[in-house]
Design a protein that fits this description.
The chain is about 30% helix and about 0% strand. The chain is an all-alpha fold. It has one domain.
Amino acid sequence: KTNLLEAMYYLCALESPRVHADLPLVRTGADSAFVRGEVE
């Protein structure tokens, strides 16, 4: 449940409720990340 709520928050606010920078959210070794969501 927590991961789902965090993902929904990130999609709405474009920031993490847990960290101040996005770097910890990017997979190690990756240059970038993307976020995609679909609401029905």
